[in-house]
Amino acid sequence: MHQVQPSPGNSKNRYLGIWYNKIATQTAVWVANREIPITNRSGILKITNPGILVLLNETGNIIWSSNTSRTVQNPIAQLLESGNLLVKDANDDNPDNFLWQSFDYPCDTLLPGMKLGKNLVTGRDWYLSSWKSNNDPGRGVFTYWLDLRGYPQFWGSNGSVEWYRSGPWNGLRFSGNPSLKKNSIYKFNFVFNKQEVYYSYELLNSSIVSRFSINENGFVQRWTWVDGKGWVLYLSGPTDTCDTYALCGKYGSCNVGNSPVCGCLDKFVPSRPKEWAMGVSTNGCIRRTPLDCEKGDGFLKYSGIKLPDTQYSWFNESMTLKECQTACSHNCTCMAYTTLNISGEGSGCLLWFGDLIDIKEYTENGQDIYIRMASSESEGLAISNGGSKEKKGETIGISLAISMVTLSLIFGLLFYVWRKKQQQQQQQQLKREGRTRDIFKHGYNNESQTKDLELPLLDLATIMNATNDFSESNKLGAGGFGTVYKGMLEGQEIAVKRLSRNSKQGVDEFKNEVICIAKLQHRNLVKLLGCCIQGEEKMLIYEYMPNKSLDSFIFDPTRSTILDWPKRFHIINGIARGLLYLHQDSRLRIIHRDLKASNVLLDIDMNPKISDFGMARSFRGEETEANTSRVVGTYGYMSPEYAVDGFFSIKSDVFSFGVLVLEIVSGKRNRGFFHSDHNLNLLGHAWMVYKEGTSLELLDEAVKDSCHLFEVLRSIHVGLLCVQQHPEDRPTMSSVVLMLGSEGALPCPKQPGFFTERNLTEADKSSGRNAPTSTNEFTITILEPR
After folding, report:
1. Fold exhibited by the domain 451-543
2. What are the sequence ranges of the domains in the chain?
3. Which one in 52, 71, 72, 432 has a CA-CA gap of 20 to 30 Å to 543?
């Protein structure tokens, strides 16, 4: 791994890479500067005193650097026999105590000991990305990554299109990879705990050379080196046409042995028979007999299949299969269940909610799944695919009749007692629901939104007791909606947002906040615990955030030192993941429309929580944009197309996020920013220093001693990409999350929106101060676009 090697393929570019030293065929397994090649032989690799590994081109400019998390006195770079490149302290013999390792930044190859998955504590993703071609190791369009929506599964993606799915882990293998089994070459493992979720493998014999990679066409492959033959393909995926995601639609089943390959599961029929007859099967199948949950449904067992897409699933590791069936049968939205772990005697429970998609039939190593069916389709049938009616013995029939009579008497008595209590509870609930309907019946025409409202309703007396009768000492702050109080409820600290009776804005916020986030659950969103609607009182109850809002730190000369650079970068990443959830992964697609520093709260560990959804808008299906004649938001954070034309989309939030990133880096507000050399706002100043190559001038003095050069420069770069003038130029939040967590080259940003000079007052110029901070915190609710 030390001698000079030719460039990849027919390329004349040079790269810092790692490859096998004792194999004749050059095989690169990791490339540092994959996006920015060196065009001659003048590259220099060195390690700086703080402990950062940097690659310089012929002009001395840094084209790649390690994302080192801390500094040491005597840093060295060390290449291990495993292929892992480390940056560590030369005086520290502990191999696990490193500053940085290449294993945390996979390219197209997974080596033994590397992880493929996600660190749930730091948010780091370990995923594979293809080369552009054999001649170009630049990041290609194909990726192989772990999806944590529902029960974990791996996806092969072509850009943003998911085209191949591994299926969930079942204790022995991934459901969609039946050929993954014990062998003489390597052993594999899937780790799933509170800290991390990942797949890894180890070679059983040190003399064996084997690697797992994704090629430029998106295929994930296992290769083994055989002397005299070279690299021999051991496994590959996708394996056939049926591995194409959702090829046969919902409740369709794919079998490569059939012609055509798509068919409907037993007891299902094509949803569009005419299209199906023409070979178009993507719309899938429907049940032959519709479900009727109130009258009671049953379940049929289907065997030998690849388990469906688990994006909308729930799991429990300790439940039995019988408990799993009970849980599913009691929830009308549960469509199927199965054993989570089939190793040993089997354990755990996996439930599916919504239609079942991407089912494939196998001749061996397939799994069982129990799918909800109408009682008429499942009654008296053996719970197996294609099963027949079981014969009922005469003795069983007599015993069953006696048991039914006895049980009827017992249940009749229990039902009478239960019914009396139920009637009392229903009367109380109806009163509360009536109050809730009064609040939500005006201003919302979407009935499904109001029906989805499931939030604990608390009594006014309970909230008054929790907040010490809304005492001044419990007051946390106030806004256009009303006042926020701290309280203690059942041993838990809470924050109570009390709607002002005179606030029209607050009524709208109250409705919208409950509708949008009552069911959202994400570590980077503030959690709504309940509401109180009694008389004229309307209140929202949240989890309490002891460190209050982000603006109270980054814009305060004293408190800003508390947020060092690692904390700030952690906050940037957390906000990005929270927005990604809102835009892509939540039950509804939600555009926040008022993202700003004061609407990001910090918990006791300085984890960011996006709050205040009073101005948010939700969309269903594939909607991503809309127009409004009522512009809401905050000056300094609003995107140009929204502030001027009333047009908003997920890219409006991306613009606000970009402003917020630049504020976090600089410790300065965008609106009211002052510089002695020009009258630009913060965005304009950031753009100017970026073009001049002096982006570090933007960095807050309070964090210069703790900053990591690569992270700072990358954050500024990403921030500028987010605030570009035109929405189509801005990245999506999924791209932002990947850019912040990777080391690849980024596209050059274009001029920011609202890149203008302002007329500052002579007092501001002479004092050298920012404009009053309060100007940044007014939420606009009635501005009409031109």
Report:
1. Phosphorylase Kinase; domain 1 (3.30.200)
2. 17-220, 243-378, 451-543, 551-783
3. 432
